[in-house]
Amino acid sequence: MSLLDDLRVTLGSVAVLAGDSIPPRHLSDRSATGGRVPLAVVRPRTVAQISAALRLCNDAGVAVVPQGGMTGLAGGGNPSGGDIILSLELLRGIEEIDTAAATMTVWAGTPLEVAQEAASEAGLFLALDLGARGSCQLGGNLSTNAGGIRVIRYGMAREQVLGLEAVLADGTVVTSLNKMLKNNAGYDLKQLFIGAEGTLGIITRAVLRLHPPPGAITTALCALDTYEDVVRLLRQAQGNLGGVVAFEAMWRDYVAYNCEALKLQLISGDHRFWVILESTCDGAAVEGFLAGCLETRLIADALVAQSHKEARDFWSVREGLSTEALPNVVVFDVSLPTARIGDFAEICRAALRQRWPGAYVFFYGHIGDSNLHISVSAAYGPGEDMHSVDQLVYGVLKGFGGSISAEHGIGTLKRPYLGQSRSPEELALMRKIKAALDPKGILNPGKVI
Ligand code: MLT
Ligand code: ZN
Fold it and tell me: Does domain 3-87 correspond to CATH entry 3.30.43.10?
C-alpha cells in the first residue's frame, strides 16, 4: 500500500486531501514564496491521529510540514513539493480555563482571537496579541515564538506558556501540561518546541498563562522630531507615567503612505517620527504626562484617542495593510540595540535607495522591544530578486550586531543568513538536537537549519 492509502485507512479518507482537492491556502504563507504542490494535506482531529500519521510518514521517510493559519512571513509553513502537509486547523477549541491557576488549556488549531475572547469571558486576559489575531493559530504562534504588540509588558509567546504537548517525529506523544508557575524538575522540555518552527515536533496542546485584565487602556499618538527623543519618550513613559502596554514607532514615510491610502488626517505637520503609546493609566494621567513632554519639547505634538474608533484609526496606520499590498514587498523583522535603531534605519534607507532609486522603504516597529520592521518594495533589475534586498539589509545589519529575526522566525527565507546571528557552536548544537529528536529529518526539512 502507498503512504496515502495508509493515511486514508488510518485517519479516514475525509482527513486526506490530494490533487485538485488541496485548497490553495495550503500552498503559501503570507510571504507568497510558496506554491510547490504537496503530496497531500492531512487534517487530523485528534492527537492519536497525528501520532499515527507521523509514525507512517517517519517509516516511509516522507517529509511532514505542519501548518497553522499560514499568516507567517518567513516561508516556514510552505510545502517543498511531494511532502505531507499536516494541518492543525481541525484540532481546535479551548479545553479548559482554570481560574484558580489563571491558565487556559487550548488546542493548537485554535485561532488566537478565539482564545483571547474566551479568556476575557472568564474575566482574565491572554496577553499575546498581533495583527493577524483573527486568522493565526496558537500552534503557529508558539512554533514561531510570536511577538506582537504587547511584548513590552508581557513578553513573547514563550513567556505565556506553562505547559505543552508535542508529538515527536516517530509518533511519540510527550504530554507535559504543567500549570504551575514554578517547576524546576529537570530540563524545561517545552522550550525545545517553542520557536522551533515545527522542526523538532508538532505542538498539539498548550497551557497558557492568563493575567488579570489590564482594564481600560488609553491610546495616544505622539509626533517627534528625532529618534533620540523617541527613546527618551519610551523611558520617561515607563518611568514617570507607568502602565505602558504598547510602544510602537513609525517613521514619517510609513505614516504618510498609510494615512493617504486610508484617507486619514491624524496630526497635521511634518514630523519625522510617530509613536503609538498605550498605557493602563487613565486619559487624564496620559494627557498630563504628554503636556509635560510638550513643555520640555520632548514631543512636538500629541493626540489622545477619545474613542475606540480613534484608537483603531491610530492602529490601522500602524498595521499598514496598504504598504503590505505593494508589489514585491519584502518585510524584515530585525532586532538591534535600541539606541542604534535610528542610525541603522538611515544607513539602510540610503543603501537601499542608492541601489533601487525608486524603491519604497518603510521603517516601523516595536521599538520598546528593540525590534524594527522594514518593508521594501523595489523594481528589480536583471538577475535581481527579493534575495538581493535580503543581502543588502542583512549586510548593513552585520555592522550593528543585530539579529536577522526578532519575531517572524527563520523559515526558508532567512535560513541562508542564520549563521550571521548564531555562532558555529550554537549551530552545531542545534543540529545535534535536531538529529536526536528527528533522526530521519522528516519534520519540516529545509526550514530553520
Ligand atoms: C507587525 O508587527 O506588524 C508584524 O510583525 C509584521 C506584519 O505582520 O507585517
Ligand atoms: Zn511585528
Answer: yes
